[in-house]
Amino acid sequence: MSTQTQVFAEFAATFGGVDPSDLEAVQHWYDEILPTLPSSTIEAVLDELVKREGFSDDDGHARTYPDQAPLPTLDQAPPVPLPLLAAGWREFLRRLLRRHGTSGRADR
């Protein structure tokens, strides 16, 4: 299961002071600012992202559907593309950590 974009935005706000509602600023932080930070910060971001992988934004409301409406099966549902921000984030951070000389921690 992938990590939701809102988690990436939350970490950009926490670690970089970025407005989490501004997805362009969040993307810029991951692309331009994060690679320039100390490896300890990059490692902290990676650790937090790994902890939150598969995060569910459960608002506590039960999901109900009308009895007469059949639920579609997964093979009937159209494919949904991954958000660009989330696609390949592990590989990106692994390469970033390797470039900063840390070892082992990114091979999860």
Q: How would you concisely characterize the structure shown here?
A:
With 108 residues, the protein is mostly helical.
Detailed description of the structure:
This protein has 108 residues and is mainly α. The chain has one domain. The protein has 4 helices and no strands. Helix 3 runs antiparallel to helix 4. The longest helix is centred in the middle third of the chain and has 13 residues. The two termini are 15 Å apart.
- Rg computed from alpha carbons, rounded to a whole number of angstroms: 17 Å
Helix share, percent:
40-55%
Structural class category:
mainly alpha
Any idea how many domains? 1
Q: What separation lies between the terminal Cα atoms?
A: 15 Å
Assess the beta-strand content as a share of residues.
Answer: under 5%
Number of helices: 4
**Main sheet summary:** none
- Shape descriptor reads elongated
Write the layout of secondary structure elements.
Blueprint lengths: L4 H12 L6 H11 L5 H13 L37 H11 L9
Helix pairs in contact: 1-2, 1-3, 3-4
